[in-house]
Amino acid sequence: MSEDRSGHELPPAAESRMAEIRRSGTWGSALTADEFTAIRGVGFEPVGQVLGAAVYNIGYAGGYGCPGAWAGYGGYVTPYQSVTAVSGQGVIGSFGPMVQTLYQARRKALARMSQECAELGGHGVVGVLLTIGAFPAGGLEFKAIGTAVRAPGGVPLKRPFTSDLSGQDFAKLITAGWVPVGMALGISIGARHDDWLTINQTRWGTGNAEVTGYTDLVNQSRHDARTQLDRDVARMGGDGVVVKTMDMRIRDRECPMQEHRRDHIAEVTIIGTAIAHFARPHHPRREDSLAILSLDPQRRQAARVRLGQAGPG
Amino acid sequence: MTDQTSAELSVPGVPQDAMRRLAELRPGRPGSIFTSDLSVNEFLLVREAGFRPLGLVLGSSIYHVGLQLGRWGRNQELDVLSQAMYHARELAMTRMEAEAQALSADGVVGVRLDVELKEFGSDIAEFIAVGTAVHAEQDAGGGGVTNWKNNKGLPFTSDLSGQDFWTLIRAGYAPLGMVMGTCVYHIAHQRLGQKIGNTGRNVELEQFTQALYDARELAMSRMQAEAEELHAEGIVGVQLRQHSHTWGSHTTEFFAIGTAVRPLRDDHVIQRPTMVLSLDS
């Protein structure tokens, strides 16, 4: 796919930094001492800090129509029950172009970061931080930063792996026989027109009622995002994915098709790491985890506070 | 890491095997891919307990909560609002269980049950239940356990984290299902005379104390009743939460949630953990 080839044109500043690192043999990294020890402990070496970035102008986002506002013979009057249009289905008036752009931009940033890693002779990148922000001069900036690592004596890879796992988590997975394949994204934008049913269910005088319209919007958008995530993992050839974040933002807007009515738009983003199982025929089975009870009162207190705030996990 | 472990792992083999696997990836492979919401620690511990993650399962419902006003001077339960909380959470949980059934899962671990108020519309909240559906391998729970589902024929659900789940299975217990009790309570306002009388004094506000006791008792006895329906031996991991949502300071919801458990076998022995004292600051 084209986004893998785009890495060939690294900006000149990046090319000269890669050449400098190769010449001097000294690596830099964004790892803490613990992460460094964990990575070394499983036989990998850090190679250098790598960065990929892309600044995009979002000119055409789609979503200019509202298919849900059509009520058959009545024309564009409020229908009794509308439909949700999700970006993954390519319905006219959906936000497909916007989602395509978000995917393209993130993949480009990740591909450039992988390209730097490959030039340094690394096998993959750990601790990837993927951010979107407003670029001061205009547009949206997509940035990916991480630390490249390599396995001495390992076969060189066409496409280095990327993962947002910390050094310790990476070491734990490798010890258990799993290797990260790449970062997987599931993005979906769904839109729904506010129909009569929804308006009646949200009046202040209505009693307890499930708002079926919004529930449908939210469920369809999340389902579409999960389908896109599965497709992304299959594209990379992974066995599974460990999800790190699942965000949803809902906003509303004036309906472009009908006066005085509103549409609601849900944007769902799921980010995770795709992983694959590898066989280790000549290593003994890993011994079971050890249950420990710390006798240090401060550590137990800190752990109790952390669990109380964060809930499960 | 001990010297022995690091020597074993930095023997050429492990990283090179991993890279060889990556070089052999076949993109676009159809078939089963598992998704999971678990952190790395949880993922590895759940696998070690003998369970394989099947997929992320999710149930959600956007609910409009009706109005109910309490009498100014009385402690009372607001049953319309309690019903709303129950119904909405039940919708979210049953949808999540239906997704788990569709995956032919034995259970769902790491369930997060959250309420989030939405800015659009008033009194609209989203109830969402997210968890990871798992399938029990042959050797799960020490082997020999044929049925992991509860007495309603549904996959077990548990809000225990991966670490707690591993500890529970090792101790010879299995989760049956999440049990919850909720009560929305209106706390009586103080009469003017009482309020003036209490100014400047250190005194217990008896009707507030009574309100808290009543509300908590209602929530916890409802949770107990749900556990009895599942024929559980006990409830673990109970959290008692209190929120006012958007109802103001005299109306609060008391919400008790926990995981009902049953023993896997009569003769289980709980292993003593190793005690450690860390020397780092």
Write the layout of secondary structure elements.
The complex is a heterodimer of chains A (313) and B (281).
Chain A: H1 2-5, H2 12-24, H3 33-41, E1 45-56, E2 84-86, H4 96-119, E3 124-134, E4 140-150, E5 161-162, H5 167-176, E6 178-193, H6 196-201, E7 209-210, H7 212-236, E8 240-254, E9 262-277, E10 292-294, H8 297-310
Parallel strand pairs in A: 3-5
Antiparallel strand pairs in A: 1-4, 2-6, 3-4, 6-9, 8-9
Helix pairs in contact in A: 3-5
Chain B: H1 3-9, H2 14-23, E1 34-36, H3 40-48, E2 51-64, E3 76-77, H4 79-102, E4 107-117, E5 124-136, E6 156-157, H5 162-170, E7 173-186, H6 192-198, H7 206-229, E8 234-243, E9 251-263, E10 274-276
Parallel strand pairs in B: 4-6
Antiparallel strand pairs in B: 2-5, 3-7, 4-5, 7-9, 8-9
Helix pairs in contact in B: 3-5
What does this structure look like?
The complex is a heterodimer of chains A (313) and B (281). Chain A has one domain (2-310). Chain A contains 8 helices and 10 strands. Chain A is an alpha+beta fold and 313 residues long. Chain A is globular, with a radius of gyration of 24 Å. Chain A has a 4-stranded mixed beta sheet. Chain A has helices at residues 2-5, 12-24, 33-41, 96-119, 167-176, 196-201, 212-236, 297-310, and strands at 45-56, 84-86, 124-134, 140-150, 161-162, 178-193, 209-210, 240-254, 262-277, 292-294. Chain A starts with a helix and ends with a helix. The model of chain A is unreliable at 1-7 (pLDDT under 50). Chain B has 281 residues and is α+β, with helices and mostly antiparallel strands. Chain B has a single domain, classed as Hypothetical protein apc22750. Chain B (Translation Initiation Factor IF3, 2-Layer Sandwich), CATH 3.30.110. Chain B is 32% helix and 30% strand. Chain B is built from 7 helices and 10 strands. Chain B has a 4-stranded mixed beta sheet with strand order 2-5-4-6. Chain B is elongated. At the A-B interface, helix 3, helix 5, strand 7, helix 7 and strand 8 of A face helix 1, helix 2, strand 1, helix 3 and strand 2 of B. Strand 8 (240-254) of chain A pairs parallel with strand 1 of chain B.
